[in-house]
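Risk mitigation, structural track. In case the binding assays with magnesium ion fail to produce interpretable data, a predicted complex structure has been prepared as a fallback.
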Amino acid sequence: MRYYTLKHKGVAHVAASEDGKRAYILRAYLTMNIMLIKGHDGNIPGLAEAVDLASPNVEILSPIPHPRQDVICLGINYADHAKEAEGFDREAFSKEKPDPIFFSKRVSYSQGTGDVIPLHGDICDSLDYEAELGVVIGKEAYNVKAADALDHIFGYTVINDVSARNLQTRHKQWYFGKSLDGFTPMGPCIVSKDEFDGIPELDIRTYVNGELRQSSNTRNLITGIPEIIEILSSGMTLAPGTVIATGTPSGVAMGMDPPVFLKDGDEVACEIDNIGRLVNTVSADPDALARLQGIK
Ligand code: MG
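Fallback model:
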């Protein structure tokens, strides 16, 4: 099943779709977070109202516009990306140990596909994209072994871990440079785990203005999804609704020679097979940023 947060005639709803074309509004849940806490059995109520996802009356939002907590991120979790990041700034990105790098990302508001990525040009001179597989937790996890990790996953989504490289390197710690308003586009939907055979191995790509920049497969993760859940849950509870961004492959702008960072008007499309395509346009317009900040 594919789960959406969408606006229909101006009102936000949680909706479920089997084919990604026609979605059924699940009125039992006010928000996706509530659905993730309560759980969903995968059945669509007989009287559920159907909407056409391509209809002009429907706006697809981020599946989780307001994550309950910061998004947990993995840094340098594809070997080819480790190499290019170190080439950009050895001090900021060198990784000597095989243990995963965790950091977090503040998400005041996650925007969906079709929305803007604010340029933040007054403080950011090096805006970059990172396509990532997002893991959404559906069942509380504490002290969970890798072999049992799948039980605790609700599903998967696409995340663009937008990054201000100059802030990431200047402040040594990545938090600020990853957490500017509008830096976590997500979507278009969450695909439930039962759509995949075990832990999914999916092709992941990014296009900038139609040019292929990133292309890999999630099987290339250095620390795999079950191991990520085992390590994190060995000491911290992962609540339903927790989002884990599993890291990005090579091909980001800072890895290019010379780097070609994002600029006003660029279209960034992050896509993962069998999940979907997340398309956003970079905008220097202060009104676009203010609109994102005003969405409650
Ligand atoms: Mg990242």
